[in-house]
Give the backbone structure.
Amino acid sequence: MVSDGPNNKNHPIAHAYLAAINGARHSLMMEQSYFIPTTPFRNALIRAAKRGVRISILVPSEQIDSKPTRWASQNHWQTLLEQGIKIFEYQPTMMHAKLMVVDEKLSVIGSSNFDERSFFINDEINLHVDSTFFAQQQLQIIQEDLAKSREVTLANLPERLAPRLKRIPMRLLETQL
C-alpha cells in the first residue's frame, strides 16, 4: 500500500508512479478517469515510449463528470500520440477507473488519479501488486474496456478535441482540477 496526503512532503504516490513508468521495459497499460500528466510524468511516458515500451492509456470520452478535466487532458494528447503512445476513449458511460499494469507483472490500483491534485494535494491510497497472475486478471479487464473504446489517433485527433477556447484556459487551471 502506498498512501499520500497534503502533509506528506515526500509525495510517495507520485514517486511510485514515476518509478513504475521509469522501470517499464515492455508494456504499460493505464486506465485513468482524470489524466492530466504534469511535465515530469509526460517526460517519463515519452522516455518509456522511446525505450520501446508499448503504452496505452484509456481515458473517459465526453461522458465525464468534469469537462474541464477532459479539456486539460486533451492539451497533452498530441504530444503523447506523436511519441507513439496510444490513447483510447471509453465510450459506453463514465469511466472512473484508476489502474496501471506495467510489464504484465506490476499492477497499481487505487484512488489516485494521474493528476497534480492526486499527487500533491488529496489524501490518496494505491495498492501495488507484484504478481503476473494478478496482472493478467487486470489486463483482461483492460482488454474488455478497450473493446468498448475508440482509439484517438493523430488523424482523428482534431475531431476528438474540444474547441481551443475550452482547452487553452485549462492550461492555466490544470493544477487545480
